[in-house]
Each structure stands twice: as structure tokens, then as C-alpha cells.
């Protein structure tokens, strides 16, 4: 999943970006509202992490402008403002969650998972296609009660496909979900990751729609 981090503090931004990347997320990091709004217009994100104290405009204004464009991406507000009135205002303005600084990074990851699950209308964490389960909190697949370890990119491809089961994704869309700015992308990286997933989970877990892209398979027995 690709995330947008809007944070002007270099220490917080760098630490947050590094941790989220270690959890398998592709993270685009911007430090002001103008770049944030441009990023939202030009890329699709699974979640937006928004600091309120930005140098060029208040984060509340950024949130309002994001929502006015019709973007429904979950927004988690990160701020040192502790007033209840601030939390109420931002939640009523379209924020999905409110996290007070200093925050615990593993908790931020858990809140991201919850926000995405709500946006997708899912009540439980696990995703299932056929007899393959995906557990986002552990970033593993489970088949016949056996844990199957996945690399961060394998996990994110499987998550992208399973969270929109049946939808066809072309290579460009998968690259958009997996890679942030500045990350080097090999020309056949998607194909390699899918080949490895099929070796681990069975050939039927991911179908190739020739000339179009990939989707989850209808028969997933390993």
C-alpha cells in the first residue's frame, strides 16, 4: 500500500517514513500543504497521515481541500494539539482518526490497518480468497493453518489483489501501490514477485489476464 506522509518536522518525518517502509508500505513524504495537495491529485494512496502544523497552511485547511475534491482516502491526523475541540473539529471535517504526538509507531500502523479496513467495509482483519488467508497485522499468508512468510513486496502485491478480489490490476497499478518516490523499479519486478507468490501459495492464487494484468484466482487450492 502506498501512503502519503505530510509532516514538516524532519526528525519525525524521517523516523515515521523509515518505520512504515520497514512494515512494507511505500511512503511518499512531503513537508507542506501545497505539495500534499499536488500529491493527492496525481497519485492514489491507501492512507494519508496529516500533520496539522504545516509551514504554508494549516493542516485543517489541507484536510478540507482534500475532502472538497471528493477524495475519500482515510486521513489520520497527527498533531501535538490536545484540545478536545480540535479533535472534534477535525473528525467532523473528514478525518478518520486523530493521533496525539508523541506517538508510538506500531500503534500508528495498527490505526492505519483499522482505517483501511473501515474504508473497505470489512469487519475483520483477515482477507480470504479460496483457502488462502492474509493477516495484515503479521504480514503473512496462512494456508491449511500453515503460516507462509512473505517478503514486504510479496505481501503488498497479495494485499492489493485480495483487498479488491476479482479486480484486474495492470503492472503500472501494482507498481504504484508498491513503490514510493525515488525507489528503483526493475522492469520485471512485478512478474518476479508474482512468480514467487505462486511458488509459495500455488499457481491458482493469482490469475494472469493476458494483455491486461493480474487478479486473484477463483480456485486457490495449493
Question: Can you walk through the features of this model?
Answer:
This protein is α/β, with parallel strands linked by helices and 222 residues long. It has 2 domains: 2-119, Rossmann fold; 127-216, Arc Repressor Mutant, subunit A. 41% of the residues lie in helices and 21% in strands. It is built from 8 helices and 11 strands. The strands form 3 sheets. The protein has a 5-stranded parallel sheet with strand order 2-1-3-4-5, with helices on both faces. Strands 6-7-8-9 form a 4-stranded antiparallel sheet, covered by helices on one side. A hairpin with a 2-residue loop joins strand 6 (127-129) and strand 7. Helix 2 (33-42) packs parallel to helix 3 and helix 6 (152-163) crosses helix 8. It is globular, with a radius of gyration of 18 Å.
Total strand segments: 11
Percent of residues in beta strands:
15-25%
Helical segment count: 8
Kindly, what is the distance between the CA atoms of the first and last residues, rounded to a whole number of angstroms?
A: 26 Å
- Unreliable segments of 5+ consecutive residues: none
| Main sheet attributes: strand count, strand direction, barrel closure | 5 strands, parallel
Helix content: 40-55%
Domain count? 2
Provide the spatial order of strands within the biggest beta sheet: 2-1-3-4-5
CATH class of the largest domain: Alpha Beta
Average pLDDT over all residues? 90
The CATH architecture of the largest domain comes to 3-Layer(aba) Sandwich
Per the principal axes of the C-alpha atoms, what is the gross shape? globular
Instruction: Tell me the name of the CATH homologous superfamily of the largest domain.
Output: Response regulator
Please state the CA-atom Rg, rounded to the nearest Å: 18 Å
Overall SS class: alpha/beta
CATH structural fold name of the largest domain: Rossmann fold
Order of helices and strands: EHEHEHEHEHEEEEHHHEE
Protein name: Response regulator
Modified residues (4-aspartylphosphate): 51
Domain OmpR/PhoB-type: 124-218
Pfam families: Response_reg, Trans_reg_C
Amino acid at each position: 500500500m502506498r501512503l502519503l506522509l505530510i509532516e514538516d518536522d524532519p526528525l519525525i518525518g524521517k523516523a515515521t517514513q523509515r518505520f512504515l517502509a520497514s512494515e512494507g508500505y511505500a511512503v511518499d513524504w512531503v513537508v507542506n500543504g501545497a505539495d500534499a495537495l499536488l500529491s493527492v491529485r496525481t497519485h492514489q494512496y491507501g492512507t494519508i497521515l496529516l500533520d496539522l502544523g504545516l509551514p504554508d497552511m494549516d493542516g485543517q485547511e489541507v484536510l478540507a481541500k482534500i475532502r472538497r475534491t471528493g477524495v475519500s482516502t482515510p486521513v489520520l491526523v497527527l498533531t501535538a494539539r490536545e484540545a478536545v475541540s480540535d479533535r472534534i473539529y477535525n473528525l467532523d471535517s473528514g478525518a478518520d482518526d486523530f493521533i496525539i504526538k508523541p506517538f508510538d509507531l506500531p500503534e500508528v500502523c495498527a490505526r492505519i490497518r483499522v482505517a483501511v479496513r473501515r474504508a473497505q467495509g470489512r469487519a475483520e482483519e483477515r482477507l480470504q480468497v479460496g483457502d488462502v488467508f492474509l493477516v495484515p497485522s503479521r504480514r503473512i499468508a496462512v494456508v491449511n493453518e500453515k503460516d507462509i512468510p512473505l517478503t514486504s513486496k510479496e505481501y503488498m502485491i497479495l494485499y492489493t489483489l485480495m483487498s479488491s478480489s476479482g479486480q484486474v490490476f495492470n503492472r503500472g497499478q501494482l507498481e504504484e501501490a508498491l513503490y514510493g518516490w525515488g525507489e528503483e523499479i526493475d522492469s520485471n519486478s512485478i512478474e518476479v514477485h508474482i512468480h514467487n507468490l505462486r511458488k509459495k501459495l500455488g499457481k491458482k492464487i493469482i490469475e494472469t489476464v493476458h494483455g491486461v494484468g493480474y487478479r486473484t484466482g477463483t480456485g486457490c487450492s495449493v
